[in-house]
Amino acid sequence: MTDHEEHSCLNRLPVPSRKSVLVALLVIATAMTLVLVHVTGQWVGHRVFAQAYHPREQVVNSWEESRKNTGDSWLRSRDGRRKNKDILSEKQPPPQQLLGGSDKEENMPDGVDFAPGKMLPSNDIIGERQRLDSLTEKHRGVMNLPSRSQTNRASPSDVLRGSVPSKGIVLNPEDDQQNYLQGMIRKEMVPSPLDTPTFSRRNDHQWNERDPKALTRLPFRQKGDREWKVMFFRTQKEDALIFNRVGKCGSRTVISILQKLSDMNNFHLISSLVYNQTHLSTSWQGGIVRILEKVKTPYLFQRHLHFVDFTEFNAKQPMYINIIRDPLARFVSNYYFKRFGDGRSIRKYKGSNETRDRSVTDCIVNGHKECITSGIIYIIPFFCGQLKKCREPTQWALDRAKENVEKHFVAVGILEDMENSFRVFEKVLPQYFTGAVQLLLKPDEKQVLKNGSTTTKFKEKPSEEATTIMKHLMYYEYEFYHFIKDRLEKQMAYYGIKR
After folding, report:
1. Edge-to-edge, what's the strand order for the sheet holding 240-243?
2. pLDDT digits (tens, 9 = 90+) for 287-317
3. Where is this region: Disordered (predicted)?
4. Contact predicate 168/134, CB 8 Å
5. Is the pLDDT of residue 171 over 70?
6. Which run of H or E residues covers position 206?
7. Mean pLDDT along residues 162-191
8. Residue 94 predicted with pLDDT over 60
9. pLDDT, average across residues 320-334
10. Would residue 472 show up in a list of annotated catalytic residues for this protein?
11. Which distant-in-sequence residues (6+ apart) come within 8 Å of 164 by Cβ?
């Protein structure tokens, strides 16, 4: 045994105890190592990722460093504006009063400001108007704008006429940021006044009857709305109105006016997107009746549709209106429309070029089926009903049509006398047609273009011989046409409408 081994403490212990001491020392060394690694990792991680955990401190530090390096920064400008504002605050009313609003609106926190290159949202720009250099000596250029609360309550025409008071916002055009804000504020200004008011389409609803999903876009009654129940007597006339429009009788011009009237007079205009089916099956009729019973009133439903009797489906019968024209003039217009369309649509004629280019006079004089058979009765079924007998040129169909007009049609206009027809509509249906005559006589530019685009292309008048033939074949149609004209004259006399 060497001298080193003799003096070793471990060697003095028995062999089992010596092993236990070695194990204990190893455990203590491992624990101390783990603690040292943990503490070192925490320190290194905090130093390395401090910027990621505290981005605001990094931004603030960069701002302060920029402030020291540059003699004039946006922070100093902000401090100067606040100082000027504090000095003159006693002499100036609150900025909301400068804008014409209340003290509670458009308040912004004192710490909110903007830096160069940072674009504010539009709402912040509106509120920032009162934070501009409106209190310094460089004020130039006053822009008069109403406050936000005033513009929400007033129409554009009221604002531009000056009926809504407004205060001045003073801007400094030499300041770049103020120029930017000035441009943004100009975008919020009310547009220039027009000769005629603008209209929304909030009450105009399109309905494709063949699409079940289209029902979700209809204005159905909600809980609390007045119900439309079946009664033994007629309720308010303003409940429901149906315009089962006759084709090629100026109905598209009338619809464009109804779209504006629905916004002016606050009723729902429901327009069917099914144009080519006027006589329907019983189940289809019942489906329309059930859906219209659930629609919020008042409403006006317009569609190319032969008369439907709602009482046959145990439902309240709505009122009807319509407009017709000279039967031969309507026939000629439809004849050429099927071939060439008008300014709004281009028709693809299914027949041959020879048939397409045939004039209406040749069609009538030569006795072609299109003119002699299918064209002699068209208007009467829109008033007679859905029965097959209503589509036959008979005295029964004529009498049935006259009976339905007296019972269910509150008014029927004449295209050749549209102005007086609308005057009657205004008298009998003021809730729907108030203002219709003015819209008819003074249409806006868009309406003029639309009316011109509904004129059928390449339309030619028939010869005297062809006219005589068709008027003889259209005997029942002309009987009904003169009946409607006489009825319109009586209504004009009753309401004191003079030509």
Report:
1. 204-207, 268-272, 299-302, 240-243, 319-324, 409-414
2. 999 999 999 999 999 999 999 999 999 999 9
3. 59-123, 137-173
4. no
5. no
6. strand 204-207
7. 43
8. no
9. 96
10. no
11. 146, 150, 151, 154, 158
Q: Are 170 and 129 in contact (CB under 8 A)?
A: no
Q: Which two tokens stand for residue 440?
A: 């008819």
pTM assigned to the model: 0.60
Q: Are strands 167-170 and 142-145 parallel, antiparallel or unpaired?
A: antiparallel
Report the DSSP beta bridge partners of residue 207. Answer: 272
Lowest mean pLDDT among 177-186, 402-411, 462-471: 177-186
Domains recognised in the chain with CATH numbers: 1-36 (no CATH), 76-187 (no CATH), 204-494 (3.40.50.300)
Q: Quickly tell me which residue has 């100026």 as its tokens.
A: 250
At 311 the pLDDT is: 95
Three-state DSSP at 92 gives coil
- Active-site option among 139, 304, 306, 472: 304
> Can you tell me the distance from the alpha carbon of 280 to that of 286, in angstroms, rounded to the nearest whole number?
10
The pair of three-digit structure tokens given for residue 386, joined into one six-digit string: 């859905």
Tell me which DSSP letter residue 456 carries.
B
Q: Are 440 and 351 in contact (CB under 8 A)?
A: no
Predicted pLDDT of residue 486:
98
Contact, 62 vs 105, CB < 8 A? no
Residues near 356 by beta carbon (within 8 Å), at least 6 away in sequence: 339, 349
